[in-house]
Amino acid sequence: MFDLETLYGLRSTAPHDLSVLTGPAPAPDPPPFLVRPAESPAELATYHGLRRETFVAEQSLFAKSDHDDVDDNPRTVVLVAAAPDGSVLGGVRLAPVPDGPDIGWWAGSRLVVDRHARGGFGIGTALVRAACAHAEAHGVLRFDATVQARHEPLFVRIGWERVGDSAVAGHPHVVMRWPIDRIERLARSTKSVLADALRALDTDPVALGGNGFRGDDGAPVPGSDVVAACDAIVPSMVQRDPEWAGWCAVLVNLNDLSAMGAEPVGLLDAVGAPNRSVLTRVMRGLGRASSAWGVPVLGGHTQLGVPAALSVTALGRTPDPVPAGGGRVGDSLRLTADLGGGWRPGYAGSQWDSTSHRTSEELRALGGFVRTARPAAAKDVSMAGVAGTTGMLAEASGTGAVLDVAAIPRPQAATMGDWLTCFPGFAMITADRPGRRSDTDTGPAASAVCGHLTTEPGVGLRWPDGVITRAVRSTVTGLGPA
Q: What is the pTM of this model?
């Protein structure tokens, strides 16, 4: 029998290493954990203890304590990575940046992981991702962080963008920003298809509003002083909330006429309903709105036994319509919006109901604002939201726009992210020459200059520190200047 050890020189007194056959020893399983807001003073105390152990004792970033004003801010949120037994493995904090009202600018800081839970288990990454998600879910539109330079690759890998260099306690840090595209996504999903979809209709000089009113809220009827507007309501809303759908069908069409400075004279409706109950409730909403605004329903079309559907056409009159494309570079932008009311039940964050509680006198005063003020350009805020609609006005004017976030009129009950992307009931974006006096009565609405038209396409958001972030990077509809 052959002695393989002698034949191949494998004789050894050392222990045999069989890893060539079995592979390396398996890595330890990562500890299970759940990232959530800190729930007790004890968890907060553990988080602060981890910070002292890491930033003071281990890294010497601070001499005695890393406690600062952010820790004392009652709006600060601490997220922790908690093990199944409740022990805290790490944490991170995030909070609004400026003093005063929360305008949608937050920063994350003091990311820490227990030294016994480090080593590629992904706890730090999970905390950062959770902080981003928490910020966006709470209406944040700008989310910054100043991180140690050695952690920059981790943040970049997750999707953060590098802004610049910084230093904390004399140690190199990097300012990073999480790209939030909430406004861009809304603009794309609601308006970006218009240019291609409407191209087949653009075969006549008066099509799509005609020269000067291309893509406007309403269309001047050639050879007359009549302005016509038509809007449909999402079928699921008609089915789910028929009376509210009927109210909104009147509201959005009268807003379209209002943005053009037209006096409404009548409405036409087209209603489809699966049963008599849905039809009755739609008509109830239409009738209540018609009565509230004092604008009659002149006629229309009704069909039973079909999927829920609703559209309304509004007719108004003005000899001199206000265009959406009448702005020019340097013009001031003004938002005039009714901040009263609240979120419509079932539509929190997406539909602000500022009109259903108003008197007829108040509704008519709101509707006459543009007609009285006669700005250079006007557009009612539609489903593209305040920022997206601003982009549409700018596009029609052949310009871009910048909005000063802190100057935007906004209800206290709405986050900035929700307010700039919701349907706000009654809200008008207008553009006018700088310095032009505006003492028009706005009725129950708030009104403020909050931006200007620029040469750069799209919409920028200017923050109190002067930084401009891009909310819409290019045109909204693709229809181009009016």
A: 0.90
